[in-house]
Amino acid sequence: MPLAKPRAVALLSGGLDSTTTLAIAGSEGFELHALTFRYGQRHEVEIEAASRIAGHFRVAQHLVVDLDPRYFGGSALTSDLPVPKDRRAEEMSAGIPVTYVPARNTIFLSFALAWSEIVGADDIFIGVNAVDYSGYPDCRPEYIEAYQRMANLATKASVEGRRELHIHTPLIRLTKAEIIRRGLELGVDYAMTSTCYDPSAAGEACGRCDACLLRLRGFAELGRRDPARYQLP
Question: Least CB-packed of 41, 49, 165, 172 within 10 Å?
């Protein structure tokens, strides 16, 4: 009788990084439980992308959590603040950007931690990256390491010695081109993904925000065309 697959919770936004992370988790033999959040983000088209991706990868469960958007102000992703456009690489990495959502990864990981206990998962996957875009404090290796230490002090399963939780960050030290290459090796169809911070009503990427520029640069470095739909100039 075959052994059951170990279970993992994967944070899935619907973007390039989280989709590649989901593919990596699947390639490592985990039964996937994907977790997506609706928190008033202006790029809500990513939730539709996450649903498509979860179906494509045949995850065991895909949970979309609604959070009250009133608690997520102060960011260009959740308010009327303009999304920065046409920034150079050095500008992107200079300080914490206005697209930072206060404590977002801490909140998301806390939901993932709770759900992991419910589904019996010892592993959580998150697609944070600290190379191409170093402006977000909750994407740093030291943050993830600290959260994992806390998580293993905070759950019944850990305290009773029934598990040790591991937070996997397979992309954290990769460039965008390296991330895309890894995803392509695993058969990821990046046309399914949505990365843009300021897409059109039809879901077309702007091609000018930080997320779009980094994505486009990654594909260009590989000599490939980005299959995402972009707004016409």
Answer: 172
Which tens digit of pLDDT belongs to each residue from 45-90?
Answer: 999 999 999 999 999 999 999 998 667 777 877 777 778 787 887 7
Integer Cα distance of 54 and 127 in angstroms: 15
Distances (CA, A) of 132 to 46, 204, 210, 230: 21, 23, 11, 21
Whole-model pTM: value is 0.92
Torsion of CA 63, 209, 129, 152, to 10 degrees: -40
Reported as a single tens digit per residue, the pLDDT across 193-207 is 999 999 998 899 999
> Around Cβ 179, how many Cβ atoms within 10 Å?
26
- Residue 185 sits at φ, ψ, to 5 deg, of -60, -30
Residues constituting the chain: 233
Dihedral pair phi/psi, residue 87, rounded to 5° = -85, 145
- 67, two tokens: 């959070």
Best CA proximity match to 183, nearest among 213, 224, 144, 142: 224
**Domain ranges, ordered by start, for the chain:** 7-221
